[in-house]
Amino acid sequence: MKNALTRGGLALATVAALFAAGCGSGEEASYPDRDITFIVPYATGGSTDPLSRQYSELLGRELDTKVVVQNKDGGSATIGTGEVVKAKADGYTIGLSSNSALSYQPTINDNLPYDSPDDYQPIVKLVDLPNVIAVQADSPWKSFDDLLDHAKKNPGKVRVGTSGEKTAPDLTIRELNRKADVDFTPVPFTGGGGEALTALLGGRVDAVSGYGPSLKSQVDAGKLRVIGTFWPKTYKMFPEADSIVQAGYDVQFPAAYYVIAPKGMPANVRKTLVSTSRELVKDPKFEQFIEDNGYLLDVQTEKAVDKELADYRKSFEELNEHLDE
User: Strands (DSSP E) along 173-238, which ranges?
Assistant: First the structure.
């Protein structure tokens, strides 16, 4: 009788252990079992919005769940980025960020909830995006040389809208001032590239330093003209625009966009997000979207992203020294 009870107790214990283990495995395997929030640290209307929504749509399709995009702008993209970093590390809050938010802002702001990839989890790098300069279509400046000549004759009077103070577009204009010995006045907007574009269309600034995806529709509508690109080659989206780099001003701060998540996610969740992201960027729909919208695909994951962000930080720290001179 005692042996029978012992055997029965062992059997029950074994079943209980298997049940507990099964529940744990099931819980892990069930990710995701609800909507995922995808935070974009810029306002709607900028270059990041279409990229974020395309990625989120495909991620939701691959994971068979809904990915809800939320725009949380401000602080030169540090507010939305910070929300991702501080979120619960369960894989249900992820988001987009940029090289300027992740590598530059920590060099000038000690109050951020992050400093390096030690404080968050890079999931994937998606694209680079060259900076361009656009003016109103009826402006007197038909080329970058026209604008540069006018700015040199009228120091401080040519206002160039940017997507935020010391974002990549803002830093590009500051560096151009140094390299070309000119005095453009950067006008940063807290609402991102969309607000800067609205200001240009409304005549509140003379030009905008921004990105192709947010400018293309206005160029196609005949309202804007892109006169220069900060890229060493012909930029396919605007092949008629001058290469400012080829003109002798080696200023290149392309926006680099990454998907990040909070640090400390369960290993299976991190692996799911990384592997799924790596595969979805190969989707023909995503590749066509990238080409149509002027992005330059540059897929990297985890350690490669860590290294690139560290390299950017070094470059930005060197730029700070020049800006402080």
Answer: 185-188, 207-211, 224-229
Picking from 299, 295, 102, the residue whose alpha carbon sits closest to that of residue 211 is 295
Tokens of 172: 């590009």
Q: What is the C-alpha separation between 158 and 151, in angstroms, rounded?
A: 6
Torsion of CA 72, 77, 79, 84, to 10 degrees: 80
- What are the structural domains, with CATH classification, of the chain? 30-129+255-323 (3.40.190.150), 131-243 (3.40.190.10)
Which is nearest to 314 in space by CA: 106, 134, 148? 106
The fraction of the chain above a pLDDT of 70, given in percent, is 90
Q: Which residue from 81, 38, 83 is spatially nearest to 59, judged by alpha carbons?
A: 38
How many secondary structure helices (H) and strands (E) does the chain include? 12, 12
Q: Are strands 242-243 and 67-71 parallel, antiparallel or unpaired?
A: unpaired
What are the beta bridge partners of residue 78? none
Q: Give the pLDDT confidence score for residue 5 in this predicted structure.
A: 40
Q: Tell me the chain's radius of gyration from C-alpha atoms.
A: 24
pLDDT digits (tens, 9 = 90+) for 29-74: 589 999 999 999 988 877 788 899 999 999 999 999 999 999 999 8
Each residue's pLDDT tens digit, 86-107: 999 999 999 999 998 999 999 9
Which of 96, 39, 44, 48 minimizes the C-alpha distance to 211? Answer: 48
Q: For residues 70 and 103, is the Cβ–Cβ distance under 8 A?
A: no
Give the other-Cβ count within 10 Å of 42's Cβ. 31
- Residue 204 has a pLDDT of 97
CB 70 within 8 A of CB 39: yes
260 near 277, Cβ under 8 Å? no
Q: Which residue has the tokens 């970058």?
A: 144
Name the pTM for this structure: 0.77
- Name residue 182's amino acid: V
